[in-house]
Every structure is written in structure tokens, then in C-alpha cells.
Amino acid sequence: MITVTLKRILKAGAVGFYRNRVVSLASIFVMTITLFLIGFLVFSQAVLTYSLKQIEDKVDVNVYFATNAPEENVLAVKGALEKMPEVALVEYTTKDEAIFNFKERHVNEYIILEALQEIGENPLGAYLSVKAKNASQYESIAKFLGGESEVIKENKEYIDNINYFQNKETIDRLSAMVSGINKIGYALAVLFVLISSMITFNTIRLAIYIFREEISVMRLVGADDLYIRGPFVVEGVLYGIVATVVTLILFYPVTVWLSSNTAGFLDGFNLAHYYLTNFGQIFLIILGTGVALGAISSFLAVRRYLVN
Q1: CA–CA separation, 161 vs 25, rounded Å?
Q2: How far apart are CA 269 and CA 26, in angstroms?
Q3: Alpha helices, DSSP H only, in 58-163?
Q4: CA distance 183 to 137
Q5: Whole-prediction pTM
Q6: Which of 135, 186, 286, 296 could be cross-linked to 175 through a Cys-Cys bond (beta carbons 3.0 to 4.6 Å apart)?
């Protein structure tokens, strides 16, 4: 009995979807815009995440050692840092590498190179470049380096400088930027969903209004609420499915166009490539949103006609 009722509801919903083509197209159009905005928000979040990651990769804390620091002492500090859960990577630059890199950076500055020759020996010590897993963790790393742990106490005489405090303002700004952008992203997502729900609700309500007399007749002959509401919910789900297909088709040429026009601006981030490689996840987000919007909006829109 339940199977028969379900089949009738699905069939009635599909028939209503086809029969009421004009309203169906209007609903699909509105929902496509809604899903496109939500998809755009997903892409925007991906671009912002990538951009912030690029900035984060350029921020680090450097631990500079005295020129007389033995290599085993430098490696001991490096090992201690690598054991910290906040640390993502520790790069070790030897004294010879440090002076080589310095000369490479100043290859055209003859006065500086002549001064190095006059000194006659390497004035630079080894250093460690420490990258945290996220920007908010650099302070913990700096506190560890300035603390009283056994490794730090044993090697404190060899640590010449820690540049965290020189970079602190940049790191704090980056942390605030990451936090602020995440909050804005969540707020926009909620706003888009609310606006989309209202638009979809009113569009589907218009479709139901056209068939208000049929609903009244069905109630008079004793049809239960499930049978009356079911076909409209099915229609709403169909709106969501069709709108999802249209949205996903539109995304490809749009992302290709955006990729070709923002390649330099986004510093290597390819929106079309991101879309194709994350298609499954984006498909589930768009489809789930479309189906949920259609079903819930239809369910709520028909409710007024079921109240005595």
C-alpha cells in the first residue's frame, strides 16, 4: 500500500512538473540563480583560502645562530622544534649556504661584495626557518624559543636572534585576516541561503496557488495531507535537480573564462582546474542545496492550504 501511494505521489509530481511548464521554468530559473550564487561562494572561498595560503607560506620565524654555533647544537634546536605540534616545517640553512644566498641576492651590489672580501671570513651564522601550521601558532613557537626548556637552555648562548617580534605585526594581521574572511564567508553563506529560500518559497507558492482549487477538491474527497503535499514536494525536488544540472553546465564555461582572465591576478590558481578536480564535492553541495530548497520550500508553501 505504501509503495502504491509513493508511486502515485511520484507520478503526480512528475505530471505536475510537466503540465505546469511555465511556472516550472520560472522556479528552475530562480533556483539556478540561487545555486549559482552558492557555487560562486564556494569558488570565492577556495580563491581566498588559496590566496591566504600563499601569504602564509611567505611568513615564517627565523632563528639566527652565532657564527661559532656548532652544527650539532643547531640540529638539536631543529629537532626540538620539529617535535612541536604547531610546527609544519623547519628548514636548516648552513653558514656556507647563508653566505652563498646573501651573495646571490646582492650579486650586482659591488660595494657589499667588496666589503665581504675585506672581512675575509664568513660573517653569517646558520639559521632555521620555522613555518607554523597556521599563522596564530607563531606566538607559541616564539615563546618556546624564548622559554626555559632543556634544549633551549643548553643552546641559548648560540641563539643570536629570533625575528618573530619583527614579523609579529604581519603575522597578527594575517591571523586577523584569516579569521575575518572565514566569518564573512559563513555570514554570506547564511545570507544567500535565507534569500534563496525566500525567493524559492514564493515562486513555488505561486505554482501551488494556481492549483489551490484542486487542493480544495482533494481535501473534500478525503485525501490525506501526505497525498496532497507529496506531489508538490516531488515537484520542488525536480526543480532542484534540473537547476543543479543547469548550474553545473554553466559553471564550466564561466570558470574557464574567469581562469583565462585572472591567471596573473590569482597567482597560479586555476578556477576551471579547481572545478574539475573538485567536481564531486561541488556536485554534492549544489545538488543537496537544490533538492533541500525545493523540497522544504514546497513543503512549507503548501502548508497554508492544509490548515482548516
Answers
A1: 67
A2: 35
A3: 71-82, 95-105, 110-119, 138-145, 150-155
A4: 19
A5: 0.64
A6: 135
Looking at the chain, the domain(s) classified CATH 3.30.70.3040 span: 60-168
CA 39 to chain centre: 12
Which helix (H) or strand (E) is 87 found in, with range? Answer: strand 87-93
Report the C-alpha gap between 13 and 138 in whole angstroms: 57
CA dihedral 91→94→97→102, nearest 10 degrees, is: 90
DSSP string covering 56-83, please?
HHT--EEEEE-TT--HHHHHHHHHHHHT
Looking at domain 60-168, its CATH architecture is 2-Layer Sandwich (3.30)
DSSP 218-256: HHHTT--HHHHHHHHHHHHHHHHHHHHHHHHHHHHHHHH
| Closest alpha carbon to 63 in 84, 76, 79, 78 | 78
The grid cell for 204 is 513555488
pLDDT tens by residue, 271-300: 888 899 999 999 999 999 888 888 887 777
Q: Which pLDDT tens digit goes with each residue over 84-100?
A: 888 888 889 888 888 88
